Queue: 2 jobs
Job 1
Amino acid sequence: MSDQDKRLGVYFHIPFCASKCAYCDFCSLPGRDKLMPYYQDALLIQLQETMPRMTDYFIDTVYFGGGTPSYYGARRIVEILQELKVTNRLMKQSEITVECNPDSVDWRSMARLRRSGVNRISLGVQSADPQQLRCLHRIHSPKQVVQAVADIRQAKINNLSLDLIYGLPGQTMVSWEDTLHKAMSLSPEHLSCYGLKVEADTPLAHQVSLGLSLPDGDAQADLYLRAVELLQQGGYRQYEISNFAKPGRESRHNLKYWTGREYLGFGPGAHSYFGGQRYAYPRDLEGYLQAI
């Protein structure tokens, strides 16, 4: 087995959110903040129980996804990272990513994360149009996006990804181009552009059933192709279907999923590919806590 084969990604799912977005089908739970301390204990216990299985591996990527890890709080994320460092498996040059929403970012928490080893932030921007943000039940404003990016940069985190969505209600080619230009003006190292999917049993699905109009498949394809064109002109190389990066700034963790590398997931809804097996935990927070 080569050194490359012995490298492992680790994913922590943080299911807590300030509010639920209209399109969200992930395991994300607003209004459950009282369970955060119990969840933290459960994650740490599961991590400690799993450590013996990691002894043959070196961890080169760590990803905190959600939900909204920034809402969960820097202190808890730092505590998880400290526990991971105890294994002596975490490589010094690891890519450590934390997903954040603009409304739960401030420079002090970002600086605290950076001091603990976090070197990459994935920021959920989605759109530069306030009306589109409201339709998605996003609780941040475009102004908060600009401030969040400034706070992240002030904290000396120099690897930033912005998430955008196309195919939104009321989105035109002009408004999508405006979102792309404003995103690029913030000089992120990475951009992810996702087509809006209407998942069953979401508020968005209910709105569509009541007559909310979305761009059709052809229109969505045109928006996607325009993004590819504009981002390429802006110096972003497309390296996955939805992902674009400055040279050398591709997401090393996401590439594990595409290249068949091993990764371990922790938390409800988290997936793993480890030891030749693929498995996932049920999307059930209370069940996860009881099981641990």
Note: The two ends are 32 Å apart (CA to CA).
Job 2
Amino acid sequence: MRSQDRLARVAEFSSSISAHSVRILLEAHGVKATVVGDVMNETGLELVSVYIHANQIETARMVMRDVPAASEGLIPSWICSCGAEVDAGFHCCWSCGEEAEESSSEG
């Protein structure tokens, strides 16, 4: 799979409306986005995620940082040794495949 075909989770919200608003914002800026998890189940609405193509993550983050309501859902990222910014939801770098180092604060 090519890196531009991989999806990256860029944001997470407790509201389907917020997630779809961010999807619309991103698409208005040329970033194709998909909302996942906006289905009600027996326990109630779970967190709703916004996914984009991994090669558009920098653009998406820049767009979302400029809108306070959108930036609240941004998922923290980590910087790989190759220099790529990787969503915290991934344990491997989307660019080079290197695994994230374990954080000493986890436990």
Note: The radius of gyration is 14 Å.
